[in-house]
Every structure is written in C-alpha cells, then in structure tokens.
Amino acid sequence: MTIDGVVLWLHLVAAAVWVGGLITVGALVPALRSAGAERPMLQAMARRFGVVSWAAMGLAVVTGAIQMVRLDYGWFDEPVVRKLGLVVVAIALAAGHQFTARRTSAAVRGALQGAILLVSLGILAAAVALSG
Questions:
Q1: Domain tally for the chain?
Q2: Mean pLDDT, each 10-residue run in order, the chain (132 residues)
Q3: Which structural domain, as residue segments, surrounds residue 88?
Q4: How far is CA 11 from CA 16, 55, 103, 126, in A?
C-alpha cells in the first residue's frame, strides 16, 4: 500500500469512528435513559466518547490536510471549500456541546447532537462529491 493509500485509509477510519460514534451514542442515550440509567453513567459514557471522537476528528483533519497537499486539491475549489466549511461547523458545534453540556437541558444537548450528526453526514456527502 502506498503512503497515499495509508493516509486515505486512516482518514476513512477516523471519519467512520466520528460519524459512527455519533449515530451509536444517539441511539444509546435514549435507550439508556429509558432503562433507568443515572446521569453519572451517561456522563461517563459521554466523556469516553469525547476522548475517542476528538482523537478521530483530529486524525481526520490531519489526514485530510495531508491528502489536500499530496493530491494537489485546489484549496478554493467549491467542493473543498464546502467540505472544509462543514468541518469547521462540526468542530464548533461539538466544542460548544462539550463546553455547555453540564448546564444545558437534555433537549438542548440532544438538539446539538442531532445538528452535529447532520453536519457530519454533510461532510461525508461533500467527500463523495470530491471523489467523483
């Protein structure tokens, strides 16, 4: 496998961990609440997911930047700008969620999680547009 293949593979794994984790947590939290899980258990799960998801996002950003340089993507091509813009929005929403989660309601946290997931799915759609 070439270096470009390794970088692409790492980028895809990081994206899968980020988006797959969002979907998994989104499905688990309501189920755990219904089963009577206490807030400390949900907070522990969220903290662990935060560590994994931020590592995945960091890896995706680094490998994405490497790909842009090595594959000579135009930094100002419309699909690239769209994807980069969505990445910035996803990071901002995730950071906002993480820093406000302790003092916001479950409904607000859920809405932020949903927004993060939708933007992340948009990133995947933008990536498909870049590859086509």
A1: 1
A2: 93 95 90 92 91 96 90 74 92 93 89 93 89 72
A3: 3-131
A4: 9, 12, 33, 14
